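Quick start: what a row looks like.
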Amino acid sequence: MGLCEPYDANSQPGRQELVTGMDQALRNYLVVTGGYWAFTLTDGAIRMLVVLYFHLLGYSPLQVAMLFLFYEFFGIVTNLVGGWLGARIGLNRTMNIGMAMQVCALLALTVPDSWLSVGYVMAAQALSGIAKDLNKMSAKASVKAINSSADDSQSGTTSLFKWVALLTGSKNALKGLGFFIGAGLLQWLSFRGGLTALAVMLFTVLLATLWMLPSGVGQMKSKPKFTQVFSTIKAVNILSAARFFLFGSRDVWFVVGLPVFLYEKLGWDFYKVGGFLALWVIGYGIVQALSPRLLRQHHPGGTSARYWAFILALIPAGMAFALQQGLPADSVIILGLVLFGIVFAINSAIHSYLILAYSSHDKVAMNVGFYYMSNAGGRLVGTVLSGWLYQNFGLEGCLWWSFAFVLLAGLISFALPQYHT
């Protein structure tokens, strides 16, 4: 080497190794995202297939909604156990287990109508709920593990927020698209034909991810004990409590109260209700994916979480007040849903980033599992309250409880640290 040449004998291989590592991380991220997308399409489609088909069989909207009760309940257990399992065997394996269980859940509903009792369908939906939460926990925790190669730089923290926002936002948009696919499959291939087509598609994706993903993603070096599933990190526990009330605030009026109100009070037919909610979920997912650009923040903290929670609380309160004052219900619902979807998506994106930011690489699976256990608990409570509140107090009662839940989420967020712990 000449004296005038820059000394880079050691730095050049380092740069090459970094580029190779980043390329591999991006490849793994795309595989995880693709698998999550495929699963999400089946998750939205199976929900719409069940909703429409059992409506055609004569079930009331409230009865149809209650078919998904076990779907939400088992999410609590799954997220708690799933994070521990992912830390022991690797996140790619728990993701694939979730896909395999969803294939079984889809095929379980292809039996003759005489088998499709309420208990049988609830059991099949429980299996689907377990599969969904295994897949979601694995995919989101994998983002932290895959992104670890860049975390020593500013670009690492920036890409983490972008990657998790894109993964979560695109998931919600595709779930809305899955509603349309489910309705289309019911019309084109019938109930059982549609379920079979979804099962074949997901099984093909399962085989592809088994082949393409490296083993051991997110696996802890030491095997954690089951007693370690409960987080000892203060920020994670506080964020999980805020998450419980945030998602309870959505489902307390969205799961039962809203669709029944649109169907019974506004006279919308079932297909219009399903299509409208599908479009709302797609729009919500797009906003969530764009949240880093909308917020112009590389790494939001506790201040962002409570600020946006308090803004969100104003929307259900304003909707409830407007309905009680006799303003046109269709205008109040449509405008309120648009505003709620935008602000809720930003809230959810901030939470999804913070849980990864607050977690160390070796414990991310267990922390994410614990966090989504709280998420599932909020959804379960919201689902049950939605039916009870609507029956006794109407949609206005559901919206006032939504306001109270968001307010609690904002107040809890005062205890969140501004920066990563």
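That is the whole record. Residues 19-415 form a domain with the Growth Hormone; Chain: A; fold (CATH 1.20.1250.20). The chain has one domain: 19-415.
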